[in-house]
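Fill in residues.
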């Protein structure tokens, strides 16, 4: 879930000029644009769909990203990372798991984004018709999870309407963007876990 969220965040900055650009150039421009923000706040409606299994789940989520640090709240979990340490709070279990950031799959949003920068092929699905323009992106290298992404944009304002992620298990993950705010002034300790905010939680240090 966390990895999917970080990948989704990589295409949320599609505010570049679409004219005279192919889809792959636009996708890379989105990543470059994302890196230019001091920080990002996002809120979204999330759905998981698997038609064959009869699964349709919906929920809301929100998060912040600033460089190597991030905060994510979804499915009763708060995930806080300062770039070196990750704290995962599970509300149902009333516990906080503390772990070091992994160097290979380190949870760094920009690292996740960069891994797709030169390894993606993208095409416009509907470049001229209607209000919404869609881009389909597929990893060039073998990805054990992600098969393709479809991003829907408003053809006039270029605002993101929704993102669909399709994995190799025939699951579809839909993120409908409801809020996207950049360059806010955040407290210096915003991406650091504070025990005082979770006074009843059991602390489990996995480092």
């Amino acid at each position: 879930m966390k990895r999917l969220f970080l990948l989704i965040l990589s295409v949320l900055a599609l505010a570049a000029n679409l004219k005279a650009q192919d889809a792959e150039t636009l996708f890379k421009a989105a990543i470059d644009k994302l890196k230019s923000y001091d920080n990002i706040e996002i809120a979204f409606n999330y759905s998981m769909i698997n038609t064959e299994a009869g699964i349709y789940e919906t929920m809301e989520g929100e998060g912040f990203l600033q460089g190597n640090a991030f905060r994510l709240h979804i499915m009763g979990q708060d995930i806080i990372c300062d770039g070196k340490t990750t704290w995962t709070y599970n509300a149902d279990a009333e516990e906080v798991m503390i772990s070091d950031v992994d160097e290979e799959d380190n949870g760094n949003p920009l690292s996740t984004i960069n891994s797709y920068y030169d390894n993606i092929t993208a095409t416009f699905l509907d470049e001229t018709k209607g209000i919404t323009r869609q881009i389909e992106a597929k990893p060039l290298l073998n990805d054990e999870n992600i098969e393709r992404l479809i991003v829907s944009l408003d053809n006039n304002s270029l605002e993101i309407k929704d993102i669909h992620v399709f994995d190799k298990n025939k699951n579809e993950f839909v993120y409908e963007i409801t809020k996207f705010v950049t360059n806010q002034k955040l407290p210096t300790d915003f991406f650091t876990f504070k025990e005082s905010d979770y006074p009843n939680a059991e602390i489990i240090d996995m480092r």
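The longest strand covers residues 55-66.
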